[in-house]
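Researcher: Let's do a round of design. I'm pasting the structure tokens now; please hold your answer until I've finished.
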């Protein structure tokens, strides 16, 4: 009888132990599942972007041999927003699109590292220029104008980050809601957006990007800072990892007095 009682209690203890393990494992699994879902969502968006690019007119097979890939280019910083010290020896110009998932990836994963290692130390200044691909991203133009309108009130970079964090919600009403969330003067912001104050500014950025050889986003020019604001340097296409930019920056620093 004692043997049966001992076996019964052993089974109860064993089952209690297994239940405790499964509970802990479940809690951990929940987080793992959420991380996997987030990763799959990002991959899904990037696959959609690739599909849109392939279906766009620019993706048609050329009738003539393609031109050699650009390794260097040049563009002006214009009067666009600057992150970092104005006299930093190295300049990075980005041509970007607020609906582009690859641009969001750069903003989320790579730019913070560049900021920490180079921008915050006064070595690099970062210039953001708009290049909305309206044929596949119909809300990117207005989003770019919204960032400029926020810049009128000293909140350009706050709006920049908000737009990239909310790429699926860039309708006009969304943009006005973000302005309210950022404590902007909503009347001034709404007037700026509704009257298309910065439509020409964004169009000028697109023209400058085309002249520099930009065909997709993101695209970057990394070069030495100049007095006239025209930057000539390495041309980087796509959301490259931090190491690509680090290598380009370090090479320039070696040749800088």
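Researcher: That's everything. Go ahead.
Model: Designed sequence:
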């Amino acid at each position: 009888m004692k043997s049966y009682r001992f076996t019964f209690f052993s089974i109860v203890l064993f089952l209690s132990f297994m239940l405790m393990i499964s509970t802990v494992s479940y809690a951990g699994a929940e987080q793992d599942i959420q991380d996997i879902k987030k990763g799959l969502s990002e991959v899904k968006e990037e696959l959609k972007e690739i599909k849109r690019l392939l279906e766009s007119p620019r993706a048609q097979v050329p009738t003539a041999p393609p031109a050699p890939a650009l390794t260097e280019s040049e563009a002006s910083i214009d009067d666009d927003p600057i992150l970092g010290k104005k006299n930093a020896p190295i300049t990075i110009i980005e041509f970007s699109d607020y609906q582009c998932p690859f641009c969001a990836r750069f903003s989320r994963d790579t730019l913070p590292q560049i900021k920490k290692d180079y921008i915050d130390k006064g070595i690099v200044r970062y210039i953001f220029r708009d290049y909305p691909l309206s044929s596949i991203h119909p809300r990117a133009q207005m989003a770019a104008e919204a960032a400029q309108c926020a810049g009128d009130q000293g909140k350009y970079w706050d709006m920049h980050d908000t737009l990239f964090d909310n790429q699926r919600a860039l309708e006009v009403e969304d943009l006005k809601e973000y302005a309210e969330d950022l404590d902007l003067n909503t009347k001034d912001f709404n007037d700026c957006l509704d009257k298309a104050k910065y439509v020409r500014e964004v169009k000028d950025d697109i023209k400058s990007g085309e002249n520099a050889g930009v065909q997709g986003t993101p695209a970057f020019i990394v070069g030495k800072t100049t007095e006239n604001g025209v930057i000539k340097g390495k041309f980087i296409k796509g959301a490259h990892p931090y190491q690509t930019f680090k290598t380009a920056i370090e090479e320039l620093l070696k040749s800088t007095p």
